[in-house]
């Protein structure tokens, strides 16, 4: 597609439930990032994919968080046993492999609310 | 590790005022530098970028110059408009990792 697409745009879930967030990057972009933005705070790095592998998972806040990417395309971020502190906007970004200096294109995010 | 420090907000200006949002960085190499903007209810958008020292990025009347000697990338605009009200994020890119500042809320009053 023309841009980075994320779904759902909004998700309200009960504490303790699992959620899956989806990111469709720009076609041909091999690098994919997940970030989290809590209310009133800056962006927090979660995980980075180069192709289908994740060389940097250092930002995942706990083992309840996991992510995968298939076909060098769609990525899914899964949060198990959600907690209220997981409430945030989850942002996905993608970039072409060879353009270190290009900057990333962001999706509009998924607003997750844990009640 | 790498880090970005930007001016804390919120910043409130009258229309046509001059804007400066300070940004300094710490990096182990020679990163690329960016300003992103997030308008109310929208996603992050790339505003401008600079990939090496002394480069000036510019877009929509905004400018920022990559200053290696002061490790800074301050955002400026000569005359702000109400439509510039948004959150502005300074960021650096190094070894494929993008590091953001905490964001500066700008409100421009008519």
Tally of strands of chain B: 12
Most strands sheet of chain A: 7 strands, mixed
Name the chain pair with the biggest interface and residue counts per chain: A-B, 21 and 20 residues
Structural class per helix/strand content of chain B?
mainly beta
Structural overview:
The complex is a heterodimer of chains A (115) and B (110). Chain A is built from no helices and eleven strands. Chain A is mainly β. In chain A, the strands form two sheets. In chain A, strands 2, 4, 5, 6, 9, 10 and 11 form a seven-stranded mixed sheet that branches. Chain B is mainly beta. Chain B is globular and about 40 Å long. The interface between A and B is medium-sized, with 21 and 20 residues.
Key words describing this protein structure:
heterodimer; A: 115 residues; mainly beta; 7-stranded mixed β-sheet; 4-stranded antiparallel β-sheet; 0% helix; 50% strand; B: 110 residues; 6-stranded mixed β-sheet; 12 strands
Task: Please render the helix and strand layout as text.
The complex is a heterodimer of chains A (115) and B (110).
Chain A: E1 5-7, E2 10-13, E3 19-24, E4 31-37, E5 43-50, E6 53-56, E7 65-69, E8 75-79, E9 88-95, E10 105-106, E11 110-114
Parallel strand pairs in A: 2-11
Antiparallel strand pairs in A: 1-3, 3-8, 4-5, 4-9, 5-6, 7-8, 9-10, 9-11
Chain B: E1 3-6, E2 11-14, E3 19-21, E4 23-26, E5 32-38, E6 44-50, E7 56-59, E8 62-65, E9 75-77, E10 86-94, E11 97-100, E12 104-109
Parallel strand pairs in B: 2-12
Antiparallel strand pairs in B: 1-4, 3-9, 5-6, 5-10, 7-8, 8-9, 10-11, 10-12
Kindly summarize this structure in a few lines.
Chain A is an all-beta fold. Chain A is built from no helices and eleven strands. In chain A, the strands form two sheets. In chain A, strands 2, 4, 5, 6, 9, 10 and 11 form a seven-stranded mixed β-sheet that branches. In chain A, strands 1-3-8-7 form a four-stranded antiparallel β-sheet, with no helix packed on it.
